[in-house]
Amino acid sequence: MTRILLVAAALAASAGSGCATAMNVGSHVREGLDITQYRTYDWGPADALPTGDPRLDANPFFQDHVQGAVEKQFAARGIARVTTGTPDVLVHYHASIDTRIDVNRTERAYLECQGAGCAGWTIEYEAGTLVLDIVDARTNSLIWRGWARESVEGVLGHDDRMAEQIRKAVGRIFERFPAR
Amino acid sequence: MLAIAALAGAAAGACAVRSVHANLEPGVNLSAYRAYDWAPVARRATGDPRLDNNTIVEQRIRQAVERELAPRGFERDASGAADLSVHYHVSVEERVDIANVEPLEPCESCRPFVYDAGTLVIDLVDARTGKLLWRGWSEGNVSGIIENQRWMEERIDDAVARILRQLPARR
């Protein structure tokens, strides 16, 4: 019985952390990258791609939060921003919002569940993706990309919630940054 | 009940099976082509911001294609004299599979199954006329793959190999 309860609890926990709430974080690194050769950065030219949402396009609050969070992460890693001369890397970011689908699975927590009620149903939610690109300034080639994607339901339009989510997302992205 | 769960799992996995297809334009003899080059990169949206303008992924695809084309008698020629132009395109689309098993027992697949379907298309185009000669593509479930670089690279290598295996044998 204890075991069944544990399984049920595990299922409930995994159902609770469905796509709508879990942050998808990942990164791609160029083959053979030696991060130690990069010591300075600057912001690259602004991203011209649309975000897929007018609430984020050219939104200075959003941009300030992202840039502030990224600058903190670089500082903590000893990579300094230079605004004169040529930096080692240029940093770009791209934010976008897509409608994604999640399956509500709460009913499945009960292993006894039978019939149509167990089928679950789909819900749509807005997912925001923040992609951070680090480009070798000399060769203009992408050396590292990190991203975080999470539901932004109830976040857009609330500056404090947005700031908190950006801070968390940028922190999770930089956890994957290659160690020096 | 365990057996049913296993079957249901297999059924859910069935939507994830990769499919590979290719079309050869009627009357085309690919053996008449030998030198190829990459077409200029077309910056098209992939449907997934993690893959848009992702030159790390693009590099991997090119390496895999070059590795698979060489033993089939195609040589890379970047001098501008190539008679074949190679294009590729990646796209990702979220899909919902509705349960394919009647929910008589508790099972995994009694619920809608949401996944990211990834497609890789490789086109061989006549470099002079711009006419599409051959198109091959592979489609499969890439949920949980893109965020793991090693898995993604393995998937790319595998998809490219499967696609180019569809090329007609050189005569």
State Rg of chain A.
20 Å
- What structural class do helix, strand and pairing data of chain A support? alpha/beta
What is the alpha-carbon Rg of chain B in Å?
19 Å
Please state the oligomeric state of the protein chains shown. Answer: heterodimer
Query: What is the helix content of chain B?
Result: 25-40%
Average residue pLDDT of chain B: 86
CATH architecture of chain A: 2-Layer Sandwich
Number of strands of chain A: 6
CATH class assignment of chain B: Alpha Beta
N-to-C terminal Cα separation of chain B, in Å?
A: 54 Å
| Count of spatially separate domains of chain B | 1
Largest sheet of chain B: 6 strands, mixed
The CATH class of chain A turns out to be: Alpha Beta
Question: In the CATH classification, which architecture of chain B applies?
Answer: 2-Layer Sandwich
Q: Given the C-alpha coordinates, what overall shape of chain B results?
A: globular
